[in-house]
Amino acid sequence: MADGTNAKAKLGPIELEVITGSVRSTELEIEAAVERTSRSPMIRDQHDYRVALFDKRGRKLTGRSYSALVEPVFEYFKEGDIHEGDVFFWNDPYNSCGGIGHVPDLCTTVPIFHEGTLIGFSQVFGHHDDVGGSVPGSLPVNARDQWAEGLVIPPMKLYDKGVLNEGAYNIVFRNSRLGDHLRGDVDAEIGAAKLGSRRIVSMAERYGIEVLEAAFDAMIDNCAQTLRRELLPKIENGTYTWEDYIEFDGVDRDHPPHAFRVTMTKTEEKIVLDFTGTDDEADGPINWPIDYSDGVFIRKFMAPVLRSLADSPERAAEIDINEGCLDVLEVKFPEKGTLITPTFGKPTGMRFFLFLRVLGTFAGVLAKATKGHIPADHETIRIWGMHGGKTQEDFYLFREVLGGGAPGRPWADGSDVVHIVPNSRNLPVEFSETRFPIRIEQLALAQDSAGAGYRRGGFGYDKRVRSLRPSTLLSNADRSELSCVGVNGGQASGIYSATVQRGNGTEQACLGMSDDVKIAQGEIARIITNGGGGWGDPLAREMDLVAYDVTTGLVSEKSAREDYGVIVKKDGHQFAADATATNALRDEIRATRGPLPLYDRGPAFEKMKAEGKIKWPEGWTDPDEGWTAFDVNA
Amino acid sequence: MSLRIAIDTGGTFTDIVAINDKTGDQHVVKTPSTPSDPSVGLLNGVDKVLELAGMQGEDVMQLLHGSTTATNAVLEHKFEGLGLIVTKGFRHLIEIARQSVPDGYGNSLFWVKPPRLVPLHLVREAPGRLDHTGAELEELDEAATMESVDALIEQGVKCIGVCLLHSYAGNAHEERIGKLIAERYPDVFVSLSSRVLPEYREYERAMTTLIDVMVKPYCKTYLNRAGEAVRARAGDIPFLIMQSNGGVVKHETAGEKPVTMLLSGPAGGVLGAIHLSRLAGYNNILTLDVGGTSTDMSLVTDLKPAMTSQSMIEHYPVKTPMLDIVTVGTGGGSLAWIDDYQNLKVGPRSSGAVPGPICYSRGGDKPTVTDAAAVLGRLPKALVGGELQLDIETAAKAYDVLGERYNMSPEEVAAGVLEIATANMVHGIRQVTTTRGKDPSGYALVSFGGAGALFACDVAEFLDVTTVISPPNPGNLSAYGLHVCDVKQDYIRTLVRQQSTSDSAEIEANWAELEATGRRELIAEGVEEERVQLVRFADMRYVGEGHEVLVSIPEGTTGDAAIEQMWSEFHNVHFETFGFDYRDEQDVELVNLRVQAVGEANRPEIKLRENDGTQAAPTTTRQIYWAGQGWTECNIYDRTELALDQVVQGPTVIEEYGSTVVVPPTWSARTDKYGNLILEKNNG
């Protein structure tokens, strides 16, 4: 071609498909580069990082995971102050337009230029091992302000036109207990973001900027169309409310549970989520400041829940959520001073409790508008561990992120012990025992931990670890009193627990948020994680499936009888359901139990409610009240 | 006794390439595969090629075989009768897996964990415990263990995998269980994890062991039956089986550890490509094997194929060393289709072998990639030497209809379909190159498979690759590649030791033991002792890292020299792979010792092309459509007529039996003395 390019003036289906495929493949390439070149185990092995590509206006193009935002680049720098070679950098939860929730998440953003013209942004942020603060790992469970949590970096240029700001660079790493790791991670993230920008430039070279930008528009529009045409019609128009709770803020044991509340208004065109009614900000680190930039962050974070409305899980997996979701999802925030609109400086380290609660609450409110056709609740991030040693030489930190059971959903039981972070992996027993002075006595699924249901939840862990040296227990967990909610007649899950089996034969229960319980040599810590909430009436569950769960030991005979109304009898190596006795028992339960509620929050919540500890703000009533389960085949 | 026969059994066809060791003559035939009993197709192939060569069974000196039997057994979910024995307290090992959810955020809500290979009621426990050094903490309770085994057998189990904690460090408990089962249940198939993969990480070891025992009944039975049939035809000749590590072993050996046969299919093509590229003078290549429904890609650096021990088959990890081959669901038979949102897609939906592309006139009525090539004039009027007449007119009508949807001409949309197919292949190559930290632009692209040469130059352009190699008989390269396979066996032992506290004598003793096993087993494979090469490797990392890099020790280096080399070389490899190292700063950890035992095969002689000075003239001319240039009258050449070193300028098409080489504008092609076409991007 005369001008040496394939540049065309107009976007056609070919260019759109190639560019869409390239953006997706580039996202994978950036992820691989982060994993290959970063240094800390949190990023390399637990995969706790996110990558994204954006157009020149900061609109998100990639769809696999949520991401931070580009908005701070526009908000904190003068117009025209974006240049080739710049690397933008921040972690400030109160100055990142809602894109960053806690300080261990350092975010790197690189502008992409083609022949001097800005065509997009490439971004990587990771959860880093340590950015200072009062405890190793920068997640103190009892922080009372942000300054206890580590170094805060407002949006800045780490590189300005390719020139490193060495002073800032050194300050950042000097403030980490693991400065070398942190430097390696940040360098890796910058390198990976740049790699991604090269792919976008090559698309601009191949098709021209005009076609490339038209393709970006079309990708975003495709997402909006998919949501609007395929998923929104599955939600009945109307206004619905729901809420869920965080049980403890790490600081005040006497405080009632902290509510996140939502009012959803669904019309033909869109969904509006109003968070008014959410409880006041907490003294401890469970706040999450997201009331910035029209809530674009939280909208993009919550929208993937809608994928669960697709016709099949296979179809759900195909749907990418990019900036197009903003077209159909709007949010409204309460005044400053709530859990999600905290005033400047409130601690935010454990914002991942709200993180899960927000997804679960969205699913929960959707249950009302979809005849219950949405997954129940799950709780799938548990940080726990043991550390010990007295000197720099013999100090060790055995820390792992344990998953929980996935929710029951109309199409399947919940998967057992999954972690919400995609591709994150647990630590093999053979690795842990080689590396740390521990012996793992049992790695199992916890019997009866899953919420019963027509489709039950997945099971949580029941892990028993013997400490071969004196050590200290560490546990960052919510849902140790309040269960994962069962939906549409499904039952609530079991709860999280951390106990120490003492040498004298006694058991000591520990708080979900603990970091000072001592364990003597030879004593055993036992961690049980939540199963998923159940979905649908357990009495409707096929009795053979219940009998099989009894055969495998995952469900006890007692639970089979009491929760599922199934009478089993041993038949060789397996249990079989006694159909006659089961039908009789199920009839009896149905006759006496009353209408099945749409939601089951578990016994601890019922008790709190009975004791008057649950109070609703003005304009609010109990959102569970009056809602009963739909037929599982509705 | 001069004929070597290589048989590559695919899903639809079995390819046979026989080479006469004395004359260098090659004989190539194809026969339908017989999936219900693959040995029938195998023997048909032998008979057919013998007939073609005019030779008898007693003339055969060696039979080489690549087979998809093991892979198909897994893909067809033949899971019945599989049981697992694990350490007490770990019965949920494979239910828990690695707790991971694939892909995107929100997937944990809707994603459904795939079925486990063994249902939970067929997982039973064995009381007894070792620590990570292999020391016994609690002795094996044999009575309780056999109660577990009895319970499995009573429930219909016929294949048992045994995976106990830390068995890589001490195999006594597993061996004992193996012996007890063999005594009580001699007909039950058993695989012990310490034999299949003595490497730490219990979940992956258990899965690899289960896959092994799961395919054993199929592979062992098949290979024994095929072995007997071969013996009946040709006497007691070596019958060698391709493994996924790119080496061959005797069929009896392969039957004992069939997990090593998984994915052996595509390995042959990669080895054939390496052989021909080496002759042609290229040491760094990318392979592009385009088949009917998919394309396989791999990376070869310094003539060494990239290896991986991270493979998955379906959802299940298989940790035995394999060639690092990535597959994308785009091939000649891939369909061009429109999704619910009017987006044009190419693959992974496919027309398959039946009904196939529209232009093959076998009932296909949906436009494929092959149809697009035909519509654009890239393909001749008839394929496979005239046997298959192409109905280009009907294909063009389908593209007419497709084009109308987008206000495009049929040729514009057909060219677009090829562009999308090309881009899909490019994404695959990125997975074996840039995602592994390698820049593809300095590599040559070797294309094969029936449709490889249709796409190779376009793929190369995307990647800034300027050289493409099209080997002779590209459709048979996988079978040909079997002829250049060495006998190869891998040995591994997990030995986690930190440099600061390690004992060199212990490491050396372990390495030497692996070498002794390798030497012994290769001699048993029929390799002469002086031809046995033993290469040491080690998997290593910095203390605290979660994954390892592979460090290789130069051949022949042993003792303290090898161990010093290992500790020192690690930092270099780490830097090359990840871009940083902590030399002198951080303690290094050895994780696995490995030995690869290789018995080099005799490479077949290739008849060299000679230059008789005559330049081939075009056989005809044809209108061909090129994106950005439109319809152009182009010369068409017959590949067999091209003279040595004759340069043909694009745009042109070079035709041969079974394949078509597209030389786009700005590319040229030249024939080398080995019969390769070397295509190069013109300067400027």
Please provide the count of β strands of chain A.
Answer: 23
Domain unit count of chain B: 5
The largest β sheet of chain A comes out as: 6 strands, antiparallel
Biggest sheet architecture of chain B: 9 strands, mixed
Query: Structural class, from secondary structure content of chain A?
Result: alpha+beta
Most extensive interface: pair and counts? A-B, 96 and 77 residues
Count of individual domains of chain A: 3
Strand order of the largest sheet of chain A: 1-4-3-2-5-6
| Bulk shape of chain A | globular
Strand count of chain B: 37
Q: Could you tell me the radius of gyration of chain A in angstroms?
A: 25 Å
Helix proportion of chain B: 25-40%
Q: Estimate the helix proportion of chain A, in percent.
A: 25-40%
Give unreliable regions of chain A as ranges: 1-7
Structural class of chain B: alpha+beta
Task: Outline the structure in words.
- The complex is a heterodimer of chains A (634) and B (684).
- Chain A is an alpha+beta fold.
- Chain A has 3 domains: 13-221, no CATH class; 375-537 and 602-634, no CATH class; 542-595, no CATH class.
- Helix content of chain A is 27%, strand content 21%.
- Chain A has 14 helices and 23 strands.
- In chain A, strands 1-4-3-2-5-6 form a 6-stranded antiparallel β-sheet.
- The longest helix of chain A is centred in the N-terminal third of the chain and has 29 residues, at 179-207.
- Chain A is globular, with a radius of gyration of 25 Å.
- In chain A, 59% of the residues are buried.
- The model of chain A is unreliable at 1-7 (pLDDT under 50).
- With 684 residues, chain B is α+β, with helices and mostly antiparallel strands.
- Chain B folds into 5 domains: 3-74 and 219-263, Nucleotidyltransferase, domain 5; 77-217, no CATH class; 265-329 and 421-482, ATPase, nucleotide binding domain (Nucleotidyltransferase, domain 5); 334-418, no CATH class; 487-599, Dna Ligase, domain 1, CATH 3.30.1490.
- Helix content of chain B is 32%, strand content 28%.
- Chain B has 17 helices and 37 strands.
- In chain B, the strands form 10 sheets. In chain B, strands 13, 14, 15, 20, 25, 26, 33, 36 and 37 form a 9-stranded mixed β-sheet that branches. Chain B has a 6-stranded mixed β-sheet with strand order 3-2-1-4-11-12. In chain B, strands 6-5-9-10 form a 4-stranded parallel β-sheet, with helices on both faces.
- In chain B, strand 31 (620-626) and strand 32 form a beta hairpin.
- In chain B, helix 2 (69-75) crosses helix 8 and helix 16 (504-524) packs across helix 17.
- Chain B is globular and about 80 Å long.
- The model of chain B has no long low-confidence stretch (mean pLDDT 91).
- Chains A and B meet through helix 1, helix 5, helix 6, helix 8 and helix 10 of A and helix 3, helix 4, strand 22 and helix 13 of B.
